[in-house]
Amino acid sequence: MDRPDAREMYDLHARLCKAIADPKRLLIIDALRDGERSVGEIADELGLSQPNTSQHLAVLRDRKVVIATRSGTTVFYSLNGRKVIDAIDLLRSFMAELMVIGVN
Questions:
Q1: Quick one: DSSP state of residue 21?
Q2: pLDDT category, 94, cuts 50, 70, 90?
Q3: What span, in angstroms and rounded, lies between the C-alpha atoms of 85 and 91?
Q4: Cα–Cα distance between 85 and 70 in angstroms, integer?
Q5: pTM of the predicted model as reported, rounded to 2 decimal places
Q6: Contact call for residues 61 and 16 (beta carbons, < 8 A)
Q7: Among 5, 34, 41, 42, which is 20 to 30 Å from 79 by CA?
Q8: Which residues have C-beta within 8 Å of that of residue 76, sequence separation ≥ 6?
């Protein structure tokens, strides 16, 4: 990978990491782990307002973490594949190891 391609890849990587770095967005991703949900279902489950949930979903949609589909007047969201879950689970495992050795 030459330098310009590497820089572009690192930029995309950083933007994706920023999108999933928010605790509420991580909760939303976790709520979508088992399949698609409407904005209202996600908001109710997590105790968030619908507008706030929609804002977070817009960030995740912009970064292609989630996919939106419409059924009538309801918008349903689902994960854009399992890789984001695998990545989050890997980071969670790494974090648990750091906590054991006392790094915070």
A1: -
A2: very high
A3: 10
A4: 23
A5: 0.86
A6: no
A7: 5
A8: 36, 37, 38, 68, 69, 70
Residue 89 backbone phi and psi in degrees, to 5:
-65, -40
Query: What pLDDT, on the 0 to 100 scale, is given for residue 102?
Result: 81
CA 92 to each of CA 24, 44, 62, 79, 102: distance values in angstroms, whole numbers, following the listed order: 15, 25, 24, 18, 15
8-12, 29-33, 46-50: which has the minimum mean pLDDT? Answer: 8-12
Domains of the chain, with CATH numbers? 3-100 (1.10.10.10)
Residue 78 structure tokens: 């689902």
Token pair for residue 35?
A: 């399949």
Closest CA to 23 of 100, 97, 77, 92: 92
Task: Tokens for 44, please give them.
Answer: 């109710």
